[in-house]
Amino acid sequence: MATTADIRTGLIIKLDNSLYSVVEFGQNKTARAAAKVWAKLKGVDNTRSIEHTWNSGDNIFPVRVEKKTFQYLYQDDSGYNFMDNETFEQIALGENLIDAPQFLKEGQEVQVSINTETEQPMSVELPDKIVVKVTYSEPGLKGDTATRTLKPATVEGGATVNVPLFVNEGELIRVNTKTGEYIERVKE
């Protein structure tokens, strides 16, 4: 049985019949009262974000999660379709389970978190940084690179990313999928 001493960032726990991921946690100690452990929790199977406090040493109920590599295939009426790279089994997931669906590309490998108790997919994580092609961008002015001025650019998949003025249509750029920010231009 796990206790509050086992809480760590990223741990998925069952609380009030819902699954939550620990985003941040800490401990409060006072001279007069017992120590308390608090955590900011983000809903895995719901959209709620909550804060919860336990007495130090209370039992918690972690959920065993397995991460598997899947390949993104396509999107249709049933959702986003992925294929397990080991068994070639296909699953369709809703957009709410994917951390950055606007950056998905066909053939891209992603990590799918699966609840081992129910064998249900819980979330889809893209790599932190991906390379995408700019499909539309206003042309920049030659020599206008002294300032950190940004312009919107549409990348494959339809997402809009703010890029420096020197980035042109057809170029490859590296993007942070967590923040949606431009990192650098990539040479082919």
TrEMBL record:
Question: What functional role does this protein have?
Answer: Involved in peptide bond synthesis. Stimulates efficient translation and peptide-bond synthesis on native or reconstituted 70S ribosomes in vitro. Probably functions indirectly by altering the affinity of the ribosome for aminoacyl-tRNA, thus increasing their reactivity as acceptors for peptidyl transferase.
GO terms for biological process?
A: peptide biosynthetic process
Q: What is this protein called?
A: Elongation factor P
Q: Where in the cell is it found?
A: Cytoplasm
State the SUPFAM superfamilies in the record. Nucleic acid-binding proteins (SSF50249), Translation proteins SH3-like domain (SSF50104)
Q: Which GO terms describe its molecular function?
A: translation elongation factor activity
Q: Which domain of life is it from?
A: Bacteria
* Pfam families (UniProt xref): EFP (PF01132), EFP_N (PF08207), Elong-fact-P_C (PF09285)
Keyword set, alphabetical order: Cytoplasm, Elongation factor, Protein biosynthesis
* HAMAP family associated with the record: EF_P
Question: Origin organism of this chain?
Answer: Chitinophaga silvisoli
Signal sequence region: none
* Residue stretches making up the Translation elongation factor P/YeiP central domain: 67-122
* Pathway named in the protein's UniProt entry: Protein biosynthesis; polypeptide chain elongation
Q: Which SMART domains match?
A: EFP, Elong-fact-P_C
Q: What are its GO cellular component terms?
A: cytosol
Q: Which family does it belong to?
A: Belongs to the elongation factor P family.
